[in-house]
């Protein structure tokens, strides 16, 4: 179906919601809104649906779980990429940045060799993919061994977004040293001596971290790769990251830091699971409070891509914002933050990445999903 006209839906545009606005799709792009003549286009009746842009998830950790669903149990990378691709399509996510951590001291898939191979697999699978799968490389800045690995991947052109994260105890996500120790103990089941060694090495490796970030930021700039910072905890850290040309502040931990990021023109990113659960998993700032304070620019799926759609539709009820503004948090705003100006809005000339949403049992579901004009998910019968 190279030419399709989607009719009778409630359509979410950039700044407003329109009833029964027809959308003409041709050659993978949005060709017209409410055209007088659709010619031989296939008519798809979307009565009782809300049509919105395909969602853009800047930070999705779930591919790691597709590879290693249980500790020490690993699936082939192509199989994992295929399953993640399907899950994102079914969630209404048409552009996903798979976040892979380069933190060589950590276990499982979070070591440099495994993360690099998995990142390359994302791009290899794209030839068969339903949606647009991208590679978000998360650099643990205290890992002194990751720089050459990430530099090589950058030169190969397989990294689409790089973020700088520092999980050293006493700052960022783990402001309390004991909370960091508890996290390591719960996740890696290590004994006290091993935990002491990990924490000691992290603190020592902080020296030289800025120089490593500067080298990678220069490479990112040269290759057109977007830059994000992770768990910013102060205006000072925001300024350091802004000097590195970061355009995204992931999970700022308090209101003051989020305000500082936005004052520098840096887009703030919060977790959609945080919206549904009503709290942060690490006890930091609630995403809802960021929305209420007007300092949230984007939402991401984080560890639950399926949470993105219901979070966006819940916000008009709990945060007194319009549906258009809520949808912008998962479409237009993340597209702009990552420099993807060809998508994220329903407008003439943009990619026809679209989601037809229907409510079932009070929950919004992605009923039909188009990626570049191709129907990649059809959960219900539609009238032609």
Explain the overall architecture.
It is a single chain. By secondary structure, the chain is an alpha/beta fold. The chain has 2 domains: 3-52 and 345-378, Urease, subunit C, domain 1, CATH 2.30.40.10; 55-166 and 206-337, TIM Barrel (Alpha-Beta Barrel). It has helices spanning 62-67, 77-91, 112-125, 146-156, 177-188, 192-205, 209-222, 235-243, 255-263, 272-277, 287-292, 308-318, 323-328, 332-337; strands at residues 3-7, 10-12, 17-19, 23-26, 29-33, 42-45, 50-53, 55-60, 93-102, 132-140, 161-165, 226-230, 248-250, 267-271, 298-300, 354-360, 363-371, 374-378. The strands form 3 sheets. Strands 8-9-10-11-12-13-14-15 form an 8-stranded parallel sheet. Helix 4 links the parallel strand 10 (132-140) and strand 11 (161-165). The model has no long low-confidence stretch (mean pLDDT 90). It is an enzyme of class 3 (hydrolase). It holds the Pfam family Amidohydro_1. This is Alpha-D-ribose 1-methylphosphonate 5-triphosphate diphosphatase.
Number of strands: 18
Q: Please tell me the total number of domains.
A: 2
What gap, in angstroms, lies between the N and C termini? 11 Å
**Structural class label:** alpha/beta
Keywords: Hydrolase
InterPro entries: Amidohydro-rel (IPR006680), Metal-dep_hydrolase_composite (IPR011059), Metal_Hydrolase (IPR032466), Metallo-dep_Hydrolase (IPR051781), PhnM (IPR012696)
GO molecular function: hydrolase activity, acting on carbon-nitrogen (but not peptide) bonds
Enzyme class: hydrolase
């Amino acid at each position: 179906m190279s030419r399709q006209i989607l009719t009778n839906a409630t359509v979410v545009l950039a700044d407003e919601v329109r009833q029964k606005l027809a959308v003409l799709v041709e050659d993978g792009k949005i060709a017209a809104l409410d055209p007088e003549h659709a010619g031989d286009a296939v008519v798809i009746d979307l009565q009782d649906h809300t049509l919105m842009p395909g969602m853009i998830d800047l930070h999705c950790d779930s591919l790691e779980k597709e590879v290693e669903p249980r500790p020490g149990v690993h699936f082939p990378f192509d199989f994992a990429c295929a399953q993640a691709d399907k899950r994102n399509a079914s969630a209404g996510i048409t552009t996903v940045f798979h976040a892979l951590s380069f933190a060589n001291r950590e276990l499982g898939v979070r070591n440099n060799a495994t993360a690099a191979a998995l990142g390359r697999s994302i791009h290899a699978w794209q030839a068969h993919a339903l949606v647009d799968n991208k590679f978000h490389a998360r650099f643990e800045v205290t890992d002194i061994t990751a720089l050459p690995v990430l530099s090589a991947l950058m030169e190969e052109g397989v990294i689409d977004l790089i973020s700088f994260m520092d999980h050293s105890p006493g700052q960022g996500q783990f402001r309390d040293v004991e909370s960091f120790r508890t996290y390591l103990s719960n996740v890696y089941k290590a004994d006290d001596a091993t935990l002491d060694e990990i924490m000691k090495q992290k603190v020592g490796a902080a020296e030289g971290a800025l120089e490593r970030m500067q080298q990678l930021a220069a490479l990112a700039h040269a290759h057109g790769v977007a830059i994000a910072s992770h768990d910013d905890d102060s205006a000072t850290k925001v300024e350091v990251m802004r000097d590195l040309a970061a355009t995204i502040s992931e999970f700022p931990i308090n209101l003051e830091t989020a305000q500082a990021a936005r004052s520098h023109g840096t887009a703030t990113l919060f977790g959609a699971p945080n919206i549904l659960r009503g709290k942060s998993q690490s006890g930091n700032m609630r995403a809802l409070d960021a929305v209420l304070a007007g300092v949230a620019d984007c939402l991401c799926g984080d560890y639950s891509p399926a949470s993105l759609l219901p979070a966006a539709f819940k916000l008009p009820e709990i945060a007194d914002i319009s549906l258009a503004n809520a949808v912008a948090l998962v479409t237009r705003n993340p597209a702009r933050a990552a420099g993807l100006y060809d998508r994220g809005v329903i407008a003439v000339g943009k990619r026809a990445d679209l989601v037809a949403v229907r409510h079932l049992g009070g929950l919004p579901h992605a009923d039909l999903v188009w990626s570049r004009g191709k129907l990649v998910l059809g959960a219900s019968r539609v009238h032609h």
